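Input for the complex:
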Amino acid sequence: MRLTSKHIFVAIMLIGAAVMAASASAEEPSARDIMEKNFYVTKIKHMLNDSTMTLTNDKGQLRVRKTRSVNLLQPNGIDGKIMIRFVQPGDIEGTGYLQVQHYDGEDDMWIYLPALKKVRRLVANNKKDSFVGSDFSYGDILQPVVDTYKHTIVKSEALDGEDCWVIESVPVSEQIKKDYGYGKKTSWIRKSNFMEKKIDFLDAAGRPLKTMVVPEIVEVDAATHKWWALKREINNLQTGHSTLLIFENLDTKKPVGDDFFSTRYLEREK
Amino acid sequence: MLRRYATFIVRYRLAVMLVAAAITIFFFTKIGNLRVVVDPNDNLPQEHPYVVASNAIERIFGGRNLVVIGVESASGDVFQPNVLEKIQRITDGVLEIPGVIRSNVISLAARKAKDIVGTEEGMQVRQLMETVPQTPAEIAKLKKAVYANPIYINSIVSQDARMALIIVDFRSDKSFRGYRPIKEQVEAVLDKERDNRVTIYLGGISINLAWLEIYSQQMVALFFTALAIVIVISYLSFWSFQGTIVPVMTGLISVIWGLGVMGLLNIPMDTFNATTPILIMAVAHGHSVQILKRYYEEYGKLHDSSAAVIESLARVGPVMLTAGSMAVASFLALTVFPTLTIRVFGIFTAIGVLAAMIVEMTFVPAFRSMIPAPKRYEVERERMRDIFDRFLEKVSDCIVGGGGRAIFGTVLAGLTLLAIGIHLLNIDNSLKGNFAPDSQVRRDDTPLNAGMGGTNTLYLLVEGPEPDSIKNPAALRAMEAVQQHLEQTYSLVGKTQSLADFMKKMNKAMHADNPKEDRLPDTRELNAQYLLLYSMSGDPGDFDTYVDYEYKSAVIWAYLKTDSTAVIEQIVADLRPFLARQFPPGYKISIGGGMAQGAALNEVMVQGKLLNVGMIAASIYVISSMVLRSALAGLFVLIPLTLAVLANFGVMGLAGIRLDIGTAAVSAMAVGVGADYAIYLIYRLREEMAKHGDADRALRTTLATAGKAVMFVALAVGSGYSVLMLGGLGMHQRLGFLVAVAMVVSCLAAIALLPAILHRLKPRFAFGTGGASVAAQVQGAGIEVRG
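Predicted:
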């Protein structure tokens, strides 16, 4: 076959198109890719931490709770096991909460009340329900898998000096909208590490519901690019209620055994 | 001096009229700023402990502006899909109304209506009805869940399941635009659901107050009806164009000025003050009639209109200024009242009367001198003897001839009757009592009260010494004891709710619904841990209406089937010692809520009423003693007023009308208006005595002139007010009736009793130095009256 100028032209065009496509994808991952990376960036193998949750109502009254938690990622890389021990205030000290997550089903949850000396099973909640009286819903604590929402990049912009993608996520079905209670989420995702910086939530009817900001993050595992938010603040725009969650004493080195996450352990009060 | 002034006014009549017209137009444009609002807070004494507690409760828990919607199933119970769907749509609908407190909306379909249920493994907290059940099995399950939570029985569904309730709460903050918009928006939601399957009832304090606003807005129509009646009475009094137009114009202009100043100062009109324009018109009309009567008298002598204008103003002007300033002072004295609405009434009326005086001293003489003089037949007609003259002659005959024995006897008999009435007087405020029995408020209230614990609220605010105090088992036990006491002792308390109900329910659920465990936890820790546990399933705002965020304060809600403040006062008095025994030291219990606020109002009304009447009487005494230059004169001026006040209370007692916010001000009004009569009468008597010194003749002339004018005025005011009886609101009806009574009594006292006593005692301030020692005669009269 003789190489004609026509062939060469087509070849050059094809190579050019391929290069352009490749370079484009290198610069601009798809919205789904970004959200998938965002989903996995906090999936830390195991971690111990102390946290302080400050709840503030619309009249400025506070409830402050200090807890100690242990987290273990399950082999599927999505679900976690969480043990939370309440430390303060004194009248709930020793109260334990154990959650074994199942992203494709209902979570298992137990609570131990020291004043009753009994472990009780909690019936699974709706994803949109409040997590321990905070402005986080259970669905915010265990994020649904990436394809639960359809994601679109709206634009790129700098937020407080950090380059972010602005991504709109809408539920793929009416049922998901109803279950999670959000009509739309708009996320500002840091380009440097895929951690979210801010999320605006609209309720199922499309009214502004909540705004979450994540001002402080830390890389807990450089090798696997895992990050954790040291501070999350969430404001409910409809009730005036807000939640501030601060993590301290993060420890991702200390090994955590699977046997730790049992109701027997829950009863130990420590 | 006044003669020179009157001459000046007549000379520059055109300029005077133009200025007056300009001022009137200016104030007229300001009426547009006027708002009619019913803010129940305006009626309340803000420093009263009940009101302080209610304000605190509203700030923390809401619950002040409740709307209660009852959905009654036409056949069977409410647990059928189409009725439940209506409840859901109504709930969703009211949640969208601006100003609604979303977390305080409760119904079967509300998110905060949770089923707390014990299972083998623990406790489950679920929304009662997230979606409307369709199959019989699902419906049976819902019904079972509802009745397993006693807190919801008689609160969101009736015991017999025939009626479901939706309770809605609204904010009264800066964005609050009155109750009428709330009612209209709720009705728009309900109208879509009304059909033959259900009967929907609407009640609650917000709806009652919305109706109060609507009826107040009726006052515009009533005002013009009153105006029409006053015009007719005026024509019948004087039989002339001038006699008809001048008093009515004086009244109208005074009202415009008064309203204009109100609009200018941005003082809102409320139900109470919506009747005030009629009062101002009546007072202004009264003064105008006195001068007009004198004008005719002078015109008959002088046959020159301008000269008659000057003469009548010079003669009656000082009397009017005296009487007017007394009225202004007495109405202004009402500003010491602790309730804003009465203070506003005092200021508004004072401005109106002041305006009437100014108009009568400027515009009216200018206008009168410009319009054609009365035609001869009009003057003749005015002079013709009519029924008034014949009546007044009889009175004169009785006083001059019979020493007034018949009058004293009648008064004595009347006083005995009134004393009985005053003894029967009942002090009670009932908002619903203000509405007619066939009104929507009263019609819907009966089924709503039957279907739920009660449409009237009484709240007990429990304030602990520090945060988390409410988790103290002793505090929760005390709350439980108070609830049991309320529900068991008083048949009118249909329902109570508090955090204690939820704590018991949770304890039971955590013990696998063992009925023995339907009790309060024994430790503070367990209470705290149950609440934490609840927060893992429920919503953060679920207990917002029962306990504050720091667990420092809690509220016990009691629903009552009556809104009578007399009943509530009895309950509160009885409850106080019981409360003191229940709670541990350091806890403060205050009483609030719609009912308690009514009781506060009542308490203040009793004191305020006495204060109010006493103050008006005192200011009238002081001013009239000063202007008549006799310490005794003031007492005489008080005679018609005292009788009018006694008649007011006595007739209320006899007719079974309660002394409440609406009727409380009647005596103040009656006194303010009635004072004028005595002043006009005494002044005319003095004038006649100065002229010829013949006491009998002076008395006859006084009664035939000033006395006749008093009758005209009382007739106009009384009939003007009686128009209120046509209004839809019981409060206005009673007001109209009582003012009419007060007018009759004070008029008769002024034209019969006062002259009879004056004639018998012949005090120096009225009859000059010719009379005997006044002190001795007063003593004699005292014996005479008693005998």
